[in-house]
Design a protein that fits this description.
With about 240 residues, the chain is of the alpha+beta class. The protein is about 30% helix and about 25% strand. A hairpin with a 5-residue loop joins strand 9 and strand 10. The longest helix has 22 residues. The radius of gyration is 18 Å and the shape is globular. The C terminus is likely disordered.
């Protein structure tokens, strides 16, 4: 049996990659995924990759009504992921110990970022990431607010690029994000031919993180879940 998902609904799942109880999902990985995990130099990165891919398979399987280990996960030339022989759309992001997954019946993009990295010089990245209007606003802020505003824009633009299926091939400084009275965000993209009916929505995230979702303006409902390391809990959350 598969979990129902309407065309105007997006489901968002977020889980803790530092929870070793998710190691039970490592048996679900394909040989290629297991080999990729083994290539990470640090053991904690190996573990996080296995937990991320294993839980991804576990959740996708609930929507497709399939064995999670049998899913064939593929990527196109731009790195956009898909399940072979399935109309389901999904997008996965992770940063530090948090993973976040969006599942929909139409193209979707999601991003989460850890905002407290001391090795990132935000000001040096403004020209790369920000539109001229955005840069002007950020430079007028104090250091703390500038950092948060920068990461908000970063997650928004990465989510947008992932929804388009371009990865980060686009010039981010050509994209302008404008907040609307509704609290959602409108996208102005001088580098994209034609008008895309997409918008950005902010997502709840733990302290020290920011997350954004890019979806069609027609999406009426975004459901959020935070599963525990128990497959039954995943099933129960999906049925909620």
């Amino acid at each position: 049996m598969s979990v129902p998902l309407q065309s105007d609904t997006v489901d968002v799942w977020r889980w803790d990659l530092s929870d070793s109880a998710w190691d039970q999902c490592a048996t679900l990985l394909s040989r290629d995924e297991a080999d990729k995990a083994a290539r990470f130099r640090c053991e904690h990165l190996q573990a996080q990759y296995r937990r991320g891919r294993g839980v991804l398979r576990l959740i996708l399987a609930q929507y497709l009504g399939r064995d999670p280990a049998s899913l064939m996960l593929i990527c196109d030339a731009f790195g956009k992921p898909a399940v072979a022989d399935s109309p389901l759309h999904f997008n996965l992001s992770h940063s530090s110990r948090e993973a976040i997954l969006a599942i929909a019946r139409q193209p979707v993009g999601i991003d989460i970022e850890y905002t407290e990295r001391a090795d990132i010089d935000v000001v040096s990245l403004l020209d790369l990431v920000c539109h001229a209007r955005e840069k002007q606003v950020l430079l007028a802020l104090d250091e703390v607010d500038c950092r948060l505003a920068f990461y908000r824009l970063w997650t928004q633009k990465e989510a947008y690029c992932k929804a388009l299926g371009h990865g980060l091939q686009k010039t981010l400084s050509e994209i302008l994000i404008l907040q609307q009275p509704t609290g959602r965000f409108h996208i102005v993209d001088s580098g994209e031919a034609g008008e895309r009916q997409l918008e950005i929505r902010s997502l709840p995230a733990p302290p020290g993180y920011l997350a954004s979702l890019c979806v069609s303006v027609d999406v009426a409902q975004v459901r959020t879940y935070t599963p525990t390391a128990d497959s039954e809990a995943v099933l129960q959350a999906a049925d909620a």
